[in-house]
Design goal:
Layout lengths: L3 E7 L6 H9 L6 E8 L5 H11 L3 E6 L4 H11 L4 E4 L5 E2 L3 H12 L3 E9 L7 H6 L5 E3 L4 H6 L10 E4 H6 L12 H9 L6 E12 L6 H7 L2 H22 L1 H21 L4 H18 L1 H4 L5 H14 L8 E7 L6 H9 L6 E7 L4 H13 L3 E5 L5 H11 L4 E5 L4 E2 L4 H12 L3 E8 L13 H8 L7 E4 H6 L13 H10 L3 E11 L10 H21 L2 H11 L2 H9 L19 H13 L14 H24 L3
Parallel strand pairs: 1-2, 1-4, 2-3, 6-9, 10-11, 10-13, 11-12, 15-17
Antiparallel strand pairs: 4-8, 5-9, 6-8, 7-9, 13-16, 14-17, 15-16
Helix pairs in contact: 8-10, 10-11, 10-12, 11-14, 12-14, 21-22, 22-23, 22-25, 24-26
């Protein structure tokens, strides 16, 4: 019988398994058994396991039908014979002295559990700072797993694979992982086992190497990228822990901290979910928190915690309702009319709506308004994320929206009347439209692109240059077409709209203004980076025109490109930065990307599609000429001062 049983659950990890097994085989402490549980792998993992088992007799293979990670770990626990048990996931690897150091700490402190630190890899994409934080413990010792360990020590949870424990602790309490919990199963296990342990030691050594990101990970693709599934799974975890603690008596001892921890753990994901999912789960949570003693402890919590609880309890009182339209606002800054925009959306006579507000860089003033309406109207959903462009927020909205239709609303715009949305949806439904547009109207002038719509040709032309807020989309259509927004600076949304309209066979225009835009600013200069994005939007639309043989889109892009407005922006971009050239080692003061996009545009323009130019000079060559002349003048003006011979 070995001193330590190392348990390795294995499922379709042929790319990583050899590295994992090599790191265990080469441990400086050799009195180990290596129990590999093949959980129904369909790749070459079983072949690799057999190959290693022939080389090292310490390796034992258990083969079972696929049952998930908790099931595989339980099979390993059942087969273990060592005095201690260690867990290693098969896509990770461990340091050569990990088992030795953990065992020495356990013996030194007479601890039934030892927790070590871990290195996080890969670093590209970059892991969250939270991961590095929780995997960096400080040296500490606890007599048992009380609330100080569970709720105050950031490094005590949630990962079981850096947890080393006496097998007797598991056997005398008949502990196994809950096989019905597949998200947070480590947490569930730790909340049950820590209070029963006699001695828990944390060591600062980073002995485990955790592969935090895998493109082929089913959990990443199915659960963690799906907000609703992730949150519902976490709620299931919380309810399970509460049930177990009620049975064991730990809720009476540590309920106050558990209740506070659980609401903070759930809140940020909970407010992202569709209303009916929130209602169903809020009822279960409110019932659990009440039984756990929330009303006994509530005044011991800070105001922001009580605010979260009030939100959950108020959602539990809501009546379920359907959702016809998802209105999506991306808040990436500060806005003068933001509250009016929200009132306009929520004040629609059509009640079966949801308002998804993506906070991806909102100012504190804007966020206070978001928070106010989140608690005031439960149809509001809030998705807090990292700072990004407003188009990033629109893409998040597409991913999570639940309405039959989707409308993208700028934070300073509004709907013309309380009946606007019902009229719009009615028109779209009558025509079974994938995209239904209304006429454009700005806050200071009633207008729309081009001349008044009098013919089918005028209507087709309008499709190609209205603002994104003037388009109501069928949600299933844009999701099935996998349409995404991209940052094109002042032209953002135009490529999305062109692709949406031209790839669909069912579009319509309601010949009245329903959506009012304040986005009427004009600029005569934008930085080079933004200028390149604008030109890319023209080039991408020309690609779309070529793809669908869309003459009108082709000519619309051409006319915009050679308009006075964009001609001025491009020519004025010859003076993008007033910086010394030797202060720009990476070419920040260069227009090479601008020229690259111009050349791409030139290659995509089809002379056969262009309208007659009445004998005037070709506009695109003229644009190139003006740009080059302007650039030469700029270089001449600054050469004496900045260019060193």
């Amino acid at each position: 019988m070995a001193m330590v049983s190392v348990l390795v659950p294995v499922y379709n990890v042929e790319k990583y398994l050899a590295q994992c097994l090599n790191s265990i085989i080469k441990q400086s402490f050799s009195d180990i058994e290596i129990i590999c549980v093949d959980d129904g792998s369909t790749d070459k993992s079983p072949i690799i396991l057999k190959k290693y088992a022939k080389k090292d007799k310490r390796i034992k293979i258990i083969t079972k039908p696929n049952g998930g990670l908790p099931s595989a770990r339980n099979a390993g626990i059942a087969a273990a014979t060592g005095d201690y048990v260690a867990f290693v996931d098969s896509d990770d690897y461990i340091q050569p002295d990990m088992i030795k150091k953990l065992l020495m700490a356990a013996i030194r402190d007479n601890s039934e559990i030892v927790i070590c630190g871990a290195n996080v890899f890969p670093r590209d994409p970059a892991p969250s700072g939270w991961l590095d934080w929780v995997l960096s413990p400080e040296d500490a010792y606890y007599k048992t797993g009380d609330e100080k360990l569970l709720f105050e020590n950031h490094a005590s949870r949630p990962f079981i694979w850096r947890t080393f424990m006496r097998r007797d602790l598991l056997s005398r309490n008949n502990f196994r992982l809950n096989e019905d919990i597949h998200v947070g199963e480590d947490n569930a296990f730790q909340f049950r086992i820590y209070p029963k342990a006699k001695g828990i030691t944390l060591i600062s050594d980073k002995l485990y190497n955790y592969r935090w990101y895998r493109e082929d990970s089913l959990m990443n693709s199915i659960v963690y990228k799906n907000v609703e599934k992730k949150c519902v799974s976490h709620i299931k975890l919380i309810l399970h822990i509460a049930e177990e603690w009620q049975k064991s008596g730990d809720m009476e001892k540590m309920g106050r901290e558990f209740i506070k921890w659980s609401v903070e753990f759930l809140y940020d994901d909970f407010i992202k979910m569709p209303l009916n999912t929130r209602i169903e789960n809020a009822k279960a949570l409110a019932d659990m928190w009440t039984k756990a003693g929330f009303f006994r402890y509530q005044y011991s919590y800070p105001d922001y915690i009580r605010d979260m609880f009030r939100y959950f309890y108020s959602v539990a009182e809501e009546a379920p309702q359907s959702c016809k339209v998802s209105m999506i606002i991306s808040a990436d800054g500060d806005y003068s009319y933001f509250e009016n925009t929200i009132k306009s959306c929520l004040g629609q006579n059509m009640r079966d709506i949801e308002l998804i507000i993506v906070n991806n860089g909102a100012s504190s003033a804007t966020y206070s308004i978001i928070h106010k309406y989140l608690h005031k109207d439960k149809r509001v959903r809030v998705y807090n994320t990292v700072k990004g462009h407003f188009t990033d927020g629109y893409n998040i909205g597409i991913e999570i929206c639940s309405g039959e239709y989707a409308l993208f609303v700028h934070p300073d715009d509004w709907l013309k009347s309380p009946d606007a949305l019902s009229e719009w949806v009615g028109e779209a439904a009558r025509n079974n439209s994938d995209v239904c547009l209304c006429l454009y109207k700005s806050s200071d002038s009633a207008c729309y692109s081009g001349s008044p719509i009098k013919s089918d040709e005028d209507e087709a032309d309008y499709y190609l240059d209205c603002e994104i807020g003037n388009a109501l989309f069928k949600t299933d259509y844009i999701k099935a077409a996998e349409l995404e927004f991209e940052d094109y600076s002042v032209e953002s949304g135009k490529v999305f709209l062109a692709e949406a309209v031209l790839s669909s066979s069912s579009n319509s225009v309601i010949k009245k203004s329903l959506y009012i835009s304040r986005n009427v600013y004009k600029q005569d200069w934008i930085p080079t980076e933004q200028c390149v994005k604008v030109l890319k939007s023209f080039a991408d639309r020309l690609e779309i025109a070529k793809k669908y043989n869309a003459v009108q889109l082709h000519n619309k892009v051409f006319s915009l490109l050679v308009s006075d407005y964009y001609m001025n922006i491009l020519v004025n971009n010859t003076r993008p930065y007033f910086m010394k050239l030797n202060d720009c080692p990476n070419g920040e003061n260069s227009q090479s990307e601008t020229l690259e996009q111009l050349l791409r545009i030139l290659s995509l323009i089809d002379p056969a599609m262009l309208p007659e130019q009445n004998g005037s000079a070709p506009a695109v060559p003229l644009l190139f000429s003006k740009f080059v002349d302007g650039r030469h003048k700029y270089i001449a003006d600054v050469s004496d001062e900045y260019v060193k011979v």
